[in-house]
Amino acid sequence: MTKLKHDYRVIYTPIEDDWIMATVPELPGAVTQGRDMEEAQTMIREAVELLFESYRDNAE
């Protein structure tokens, strides 16, 4: 199995109660939020990993 590395553009948007929403426009479904920027960055990495894992599971 070959691992490909790709950088995705992440959009961070302030939402209510000072939370930050993170989305990856190129990956529908990669949406999450965090209490601050650091948490939003961590959560979007996890969301993308889970999305790709789901893609792999459904391809089998």
Describe this structure in words.
- Helices cover 38% and strands 20% of the residues.
- It has 60 residues and is of the alpha+beta class.
- It has one domain.
- The protein has a three-stranded antiparallel beta sheet, covered by helices on one side.
- The protein is elongated.
- The relative contact order is 0.18.
Concise description?
This protein is α+β, with helices and mostly antiparallel strands. The protein has 1 helix and 3 strands.
Write the layout of secondary structure elements.
Blueprint: E1 11-14, E2 20-23, E3 31-34, H1 37-59
Antiparallel strand pairs: 1-2, 2-3
* Cα Rg: 13 Å
Structural class: alpha+beta
Main sheet strand line-up:
1-2-3
Average pLDDT figure: 91
Tell me the total number of β-strands.
3
Q: What's the structural domain tally?
A: 1
Number of helical elements = 1
Helix content: 25-40%
Largest sheet: 3 strands, antiparallel
N-to-C terminal Cα separation, in Å? 14 Å
Envelope shape: elongated
Strand content: 15-25%
Return the string of H and E elements: EEEH
Low-confidence segments, given as residue ranges, are none
